[in-house]
Structure formats: structure tokens, C-alpha cells
Amino acid sequence: MSDLDDAALDRWMTAHLPGHHGPVRCTKFSGGQSNPTYRVDGPAGSCVLRRKPFGPILPSAHAIEREYRLIGALHPSGFPVARPIALCEDAGVIGAPFYLMEEVRGRTLWDGTLPDLSPDERRVHYHALIDTLAALHAIDPDAVGLSDYGRTGNYFERQVDRWSRQYRASQTDDLPEIERLIDWLPRSVPPQTRVSIVHGDYRIDNLIFADDGPRVLAVLDWELSTLGDPLADFSYLLMNWVTEPEGRSGVKGQTGPATGIPTLEEAVDRYCAATGRDGVPDLDWYFSYNLFRLAGIVQGIKRRMIDGNASSTAAADAVARLPALAAAAWHFAERAGAGD
């Protein structure tokens, strides 16, 4: 099923894609809370469409134009992303701006505990997950035409300000922990030592793996990408190690030799070896920030749900987690010294 006008999309594709012949049929992918995504099937094959949500959205959110630019810059470099096909910024075509990219076929691993794999298979898949992130952070933004893809200055300082404003713009409740975080995080931002392309939502279920092994075929969902501190991506990935297994990316208590999933310390060592770091600083501040940011994202989902624009039936489940996210973010803030 789809909420798109297939005929309107087909007319646009006929006008803008040489050799295209319709008709097309769109099927919405399940899951996801942000930019709705569809498979577009036609006589010549399939591709994937991502669009902005219908209706009012927050400023700077759902920036599919940036996604399209990013994958267009990375694809020629050999980094695993889907090949971009076309961008439509005219909301009048299907009701929202959208872009088309190739369909990359492979495996999506939804459960970070990888229950269907052996310990050895889990280990090499996690090594590929970490190594791919390290490869992204090794790309010179200037070399791929992305020198202006993000602002200069301390990335975390900007992000704390951004997500504080995003939270305020979509706020529906009073959460004391969020109020304390909005006060404490800007006063405790760590120094930044490197700048790289930052994915912004790097986790195992945003990767497509080959059907026959751990090779990463594509990294998906670049909506939050920018230039910034690579520790933003890496600490966000490490959040999975302190998140209870929930059928998604959490692997707390499921690491070590018995399962094959690297321990947090092993993950840090592998990333640092690949990126030339001596180590990473105390992670509690970064964990607090990442949970605060996630709370801001979920608050936006709640606002869209109230406004009738949530893009997934799972929106209510995500929104129910908001108080727990706020409490967890403040827990790590206290471990990092907040309130001392």
C-alpha cells in the first residue's frame, strides 16, 4: 500500500528520467519515523523513493536535499551508499519534495544481537560495522566536494543548541530532566579535536549487508548527516552497548566470547586502531548528549503524531519512551559530574 499518487510520480519520472517507461507502483517500507521511504516498481525494474513528511515540519528537519547531495558526493568515492538517481524539490508533484536512488538488495539486520548468526559470524559483522564507520570518518570532506556541508566550530556545542531549540519547537510536556540537561550540557561541552563527515544515526539496522557475508553494501538514512566531531557517530554507536536488547540495536549483556559480539572495550580498541586514536574520553557525557538528542527526535515524533503527520504506526511506541529517555540522559549526566 502507498499514500503516493503513482500516476503523478510516473509523469514526473517520464519527464525527467531519459528512457523511463511506466507505469509505476509505490509500496511504502514499514518502520522509520522520519522521511517516509518507498519502493518504486516499474517495467524496467525498481528504485527507492524518500520524501519529506506531508504537512508542516520543523525548520531544517527532514532535509532530503542534503541527503541527496551527500550520497551523490560519497558514491563516486567507493564508500557504500546507494547510487542517487534524481531529486525533485517541487512539493506539488506528490505533495512533498523527494529523491530517487537505486535499490540495494541485501540483508538488513534488525536485531543487534544477531540471533540467527553464529558467534564467529556475529564478530565479523560487528567488525564490518565498526570498520565502515571508521572508513567514513577517514574521508576528506574537501576531496568529495563537501567542504561546506557543515558549519565550523565545536560540533557538540552547535548540536546541543540545535536539539534544545528543536525540543522547544515541538514541546508538549514538562520533563524536569530535559530542563536540567538544557542547562547543563552547554556548560560542559568537551573540546573537539577532529572534523569528519558525520552520519548522525549510525547503527546496524541502517546498513545493508551482502547476502553471503559481512560486506556492507550500503549505509542508509543520511538525514542527520553533517560535518562535525566523529566521536558523535562513534559514541552514538556505542550507545548500543549500554542499551538493553529490545529486538533492535541494543546489545547490553550480550557481548563477549560466548556471543561473538565485541565488548565495548574491544569496539573502542578496533575503532581507535583504524582511526589512529589513542582512545576516547570518558563516555558518560557523550551518552548523556546522545540520549538528549534522541529525546529531542522523539519529541518531534510526538508533535507530528499529535498533528496527524507521524510516518509510522510505531510512532506511539516511540513516544511512550520519552520519559525514560529523559531519565536515562540525566543518569549519564550525573555520572559525568552534573549536579556536583
Written account of the structure:
- There is one protein chain.
- 40% of the residues are buried.
- The chain has helices spanning 6-16, 64-74, 119-138, 155-170, 176-184, 230-238, 264-275, 284-307, 315-320, 322-335; strands spanning 25-28, 37-42, 45-51, 84-88, 98-102, 196-198, 207-209, 216-219, 226-228.
- It has a five-stranded antiparallel β-sheet, with helices on one face.
- It starts with 5 loop residues before the first helix and ends in a 5-residue tail after the last helix.
- The chain has ten helices and nine strands.
- The protein folds into two domains: 6-102, Phosphorylase Kinase, domain 1, CATH 3.30.200.20; 119-335, Aminoglycoside phosphotransferase (APH), C-terminal lobe (Aminoglycoside 3'-phosphotransferase, Chain: A, domain 2, Alpha-Beta Complex).
- The mean pLDDT is 91.
